[in-house]
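step=encode ok
step=design start
structure_in=
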């Protein structure tokens, strides 16, 4: 009783630890559960052009903030003979190029490679709380028009979010009222509209700020940033489209700058302009996550298989499949009742089949074992001792494998040359055991155990070559604990096998017929 209790406790701990680590890597680190999971990697290039006057030049450019919903893979800064530094201030990150003397047309580049994580960004942090909005200065006429407009919008609104949406919708009306016409004053620029919305919200006592961002569209060139309005509502910042009034961050939209600071400052130059180009590439999500986790030196990744050299990683890809084969053998022997020649010989055959392909491997296996049995039957007539006999069988197996390789090379059958992937010692033991079994129990038992071994190996091969299983075993090695827990549970099974149920089913039919 206590032994079973200890077993169940161990099984629960193994399941909890294995599944827990897997879920942590999936949800916290972002490891996908599918090998086909892909992500779009966006490469954004900002080009800054200006004309230098022949004086000292300082170029200051706002850089995008790092948020939980995006990962910056790589940032590059390029300019000809300019000094460069990256500055950090309460308003955000800025790139600064400088040169003692410059004249004529000048160009500087900033390139960013990034991808979206799918997480939700929460910009409303303690350091991001708004200050009391400053009341804008309007002349009497404009102030009267603004107050009247706000009164109309307020009467149609139940809360701050609806008020903001209604205000933006009113400002974008195709048939503006007289008050709205006074406020717009034939100004059509996006910046003017943005500041007008922020000022009107400030009159209402609502904190708001400008947000500049970039829509991520593949193949776009000479793009400019799009203005949005971010409003502080209910202890969080909510983004509004200043043209439609829709709230929330749009899909494939990169926030580049928050606040009213300048996007680009050029000292010692004129006619400055900036344009953005975007290109999209598709990468494996797993590769991106591993790279990001290694850069962040995440403990669970830093002390993992990924920290090994590539050669060792490739070796572990095969080694980590062995527990899957062991589970298949346990299921086939304990639940199905299939008899095999040796306990784990099917796993080794399955490993050989992975290297040789299924059909070729089966043919090679049958050829080597069949030929070995014929030669082994001759050796039994020589009355050799066991050690000498098994040594002779090993040499025979090597000779058979060498013959198959040479013959297949001459015939141009490249696949048959993979016979060397079969474990020679295991094949020799298999031939020896089958030969003894033939002498003691007859050929029927040999075919049963040989066929059971080959069938189990084929089933193990099908599971071990499944792309999803290969991916999960290598990228989530903690699932071995779950595999171990299942084997421990199956090790307690003492009931009927499926093959026994089939056999007893025939007996039950005879009993029923006898009663009739």
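sequence_out=
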């Amino acid at each position: 009783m206590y032994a079973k209790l200890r077993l169940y406790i161990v099984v629960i701990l193994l399941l909890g630890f294995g599944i827990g680590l897997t879920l942590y890597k999936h949800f916290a680190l972002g490891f996908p559960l599918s090998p086909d999971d892909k992500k779009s990697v966006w490469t954004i290039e900002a080009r800054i052009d200006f004309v230098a006057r022949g004086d000292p030049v300082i170029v200051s450019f706002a850089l995008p903030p790092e948020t939980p919903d995006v990962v910056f893979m790589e940032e590059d800064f390029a300019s000809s003979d300019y000094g460069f530094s990256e500055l950090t201030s309460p308003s955000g990150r800025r790139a600064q190029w400088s040169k003692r003397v410059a004249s004529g047309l000048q160009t500087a580049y900033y390139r960013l490679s990034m991808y979206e994580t799918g997480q939700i960004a929460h910009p409303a942090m303690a350091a991001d709380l708004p200050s009391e909005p400053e009341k804008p200065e309007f002349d009497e006429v404009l102030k009267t028009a603004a107050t009247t407009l706000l009164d109309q919008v307020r009467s149609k609104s139940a809360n701050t979010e609806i008020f903001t949406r209604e205000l933006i919708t009113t400002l974008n009306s195709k048939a503006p009222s007289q008050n709205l016409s006074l406020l717009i004053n034939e100004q059509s620029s996006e910046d003017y509209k943005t500041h007008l919305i922020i000022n009107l919200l400030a009159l209402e006592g609502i904190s708001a700020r400008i947000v500049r961002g970039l829509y991520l569209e593949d193949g776009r060139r000479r793009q400019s940033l799009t203005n949005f309005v971010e409003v502080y509502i209910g202890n969080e910042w909510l983004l509004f489209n200043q043209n439609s009034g829709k709230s929330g961050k749009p899909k494939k939209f990169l926030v580049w700058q928050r606040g009213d600071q300048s996007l680009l400052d050029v000292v010692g130059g004129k006619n400055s302009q900036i344009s953005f180009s975007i290109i999209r590439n598709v990468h494996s999500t797993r590769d991106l996550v591993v790279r990001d986790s290694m850069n962040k030196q995440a403990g669970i990744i830093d002390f993992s298989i990924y920290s090994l050299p590539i050669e060792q990683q490739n070796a572990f890809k095969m080694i980590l499949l062995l527990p899957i084969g062991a589970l298949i053998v346990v299921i086939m022997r304990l639940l199905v009742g299939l008899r095999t020649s040796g306990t784990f010989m099917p796993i080794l055959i399955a490993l050989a089949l992975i290297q040789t392909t299924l059909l070729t491997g089966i043919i090679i296996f049958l050829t080597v074992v069949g030929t070995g049995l014929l030669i082994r039957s001759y050796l039994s007539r020589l009355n050799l001792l066991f050690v000498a006999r098994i040594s002779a069988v090993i040499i025979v197996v090597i000779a058979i494998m060498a013959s198959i390789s040479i013959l297949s090379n001459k015939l141009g059958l490249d696949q048959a040359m993979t016979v060397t992937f079969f474990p020679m010692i295991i094949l020799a033991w298999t031939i020896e055991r089958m030969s003894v079994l033939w002498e003691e129990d007859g050929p029927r038992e040999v075919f049963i155990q040989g066929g059971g071994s080959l069938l189990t190996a084929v089933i193990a091969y099908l599971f071990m070559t499944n792309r999803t299983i290969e991916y999960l075993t290598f990228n989530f090695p903690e699932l071995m604990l779950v595999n171990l827990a299942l084997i421990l549970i199956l090790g307690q099974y003492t009931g009927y096998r499926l093959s026994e149920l089939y056999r007893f089913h025939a007996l039950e039919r005879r009993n029923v017929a006898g009663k009739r």
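step=design ok
step=annotate ok -> Residues 148 and 182 are 12 Å apart (CA to CA).
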